[in-house]
Amino acid sequence: MQKNSFGKLTEDSKKLNISGNSLPKPFLKWAGGKGQLLKNISSFLPENLEHSKDLIYVEPFVGSGAVLFWLLKNYKNVSKAVINDINEDLTNSYISIKYEIDKLLNYLKKLEENYYHLKAEEQRKAFFLEKREAFNSRNNDIVKQSALLIFLNKTCFNGLYRVNSKNKFNVPFGRYKNPKICDTENLKAVNQALQNVIILNNDFEDTLKEVDCDNSFFYFDPPYKPISKTASFNSYSNSSFDDKEQRRLKRFCDKLNKKDINWLLSNSDLKNNDQTDNFFDDLYEGYFIERIKAKRAINSNGNKRGEITELLIKNYE
């Protein structure tokens, strides 16, 4: 894939404001997306957050951006936002929306028109597989690659993003009647929201280089530790986030804590499957751990979709 040519991404940010009444929503369906937990997350934010002058918001595992968009809409004191993700396909889609929205919309409109023109399911499936192969070739410019990602996300099975060890997208066809492939209104709202957001495709620890310690807040939503051997779904990139990485993240949280930077972290509650599993309780001993109710939204077995608990961990009262 060609690298982006949009210049340095760490430009100085101006005051971040989203005008109008429409709230930009995640433009991708993403496993582990936090849309359903916004109410819980918002209630666990620091009480003084809205009074922090020139607040810097940092999200080292941005995913679908549900928390980012909600916070930019509701906290007018955010002067700078930094988002990061190790998944280059994902961060390139944010970059494309930010810098090349018209070109992206043109690609998506053509994909939508061509897809809707096909009436037979087998024709649509063949079209999907053709575009999946084009995406996996990774020979496209960044905007076309992002358009293909959005198309595949809207038309694949269950709206999953999953790649194999060779970084090949391998989710099958989804059989939706009229998927909204080109959501012009929302993509334009996302474009507006991202104008002064710094977008990084680095290791999560690199985000610290972009912040002022005096008025920063971090929200972490890393790849969850699987609650069982059969529940593993960490294939958001061709690199794994294993227990070693979970411990490295905790050490990074310790570093932030020593700098008096507030942070909130989400992760799986291993006690859903084994009440004796104290991995996170022991790892984050000394911090505040809360268990909240959530719904398992993505599972190929419908009987295993239901209410579970997840963890919210923070370093402030």
Strand content: 5-15%
Give the N-to-C terminal Cα separation. 45 Å
CATH homologous superfamily placement of the largest domain:
Adenine-specific Methyltransferase, Domain 2
Give the overall shape: globular
Main sheet strand line-up: 3-2-1-4-5-7-6
Q: Which structural class matches the secondary elements? A: alpha/beta
Q: Could you tell me the mean pLDDT?
A: 89
Q: What is the C-alpha radius of gyration, as a whole number of Å? A: 20 Å
Order of helices and strands: HEHEHHHHHEEHEHEE
Helical region count?
A: 9
CATH fold call of the largest domain = Adenine-specific Methyltransferase, domain 2
Q: Tally of extended strands?
A: 7
Low-confidence runs: 1-14, 298-302
Helix proportion: 25-40%
CATH arch. level architecture of the largest domain:
Orthogonal Bundle
The biggest sheet amounts to: 7 strands, mixed
Write down the CATH class of the largest domain.
Mainly Alpha
Indicate how many domains the architecture comprises. 2
Task: Reconstruct the topology from this structure.
Layout: H1 38-43, E1 55-59, H2 66-74, E2 78-84, H3 88-99, H4 101-117, H5 121-137, H6 142-155, H7 184-193, E3 197-200, E4 216-220, H8 243-258, E5 262-268, H9 279-283, E6 288-295, E7 307-314
Parallel strand pairs: 1-2, 1-4, 2-3, 4-5
Antiparallel strand pairs: 5-7, 6-7
Helix pairs in contact: 3-6, 3-7, 4-6, 5-6
